[in-house]
Design a protein that fits this description.
Elements (H helix, E strand, L loop, with lengths): L1 H6 L8 H25 L8 H22 L7 H28 L1
């Protein structure tokens, strides 16, 4: 998330890179709040269905991008492990978002 925040303002306003970055930051922000609430045992913040649904696609995109990049490295290398940690984190984030979405449906 810090890397994405560092990139804010470096893309032209309204460009596809700018909107992709904004969507990723939003998705990771939602996931971070859900994770913090989950870990602390507090009630999760309330998000709208639209906010949660909007968060799934960027998380899927990050997972796919990392999985594709991971194929370029041999298992056990530093980059492979780094990408695996990112994939694991994004899958956890996606699970939290999907769980919150399902809770809204009840």
């Amino acid at each position: 998330m810090r890397r994405c925040e560092k990139m804010k303002g470096k893309f032209p306003q309204g460009s596809s890179q700018d909107s992709l970055l904004k969507n990723r930051l939003h998705a990771m922000g939602v996931a971070q709040l859900l994770l913090e609430a989950n870990l602390s045992g507090e009630t999760a913040p309330s998000f709208t269905r639209e906010e949660l649904e909007r968060s799934v696609a960027p998380l899927d995109s990050i997972i796919h991008k990392c999985a594709t990049a991971q194929k370029k490295w041999e298992q056990g290398t530093r980059y492979y492990r780094q990408l695996q940690r990112m994939i694991d984190a994004m899958q956890t984030a996606k699970e939290l978002v999907c769980t919150a979405l399902h809770a809204l449906e009840k």
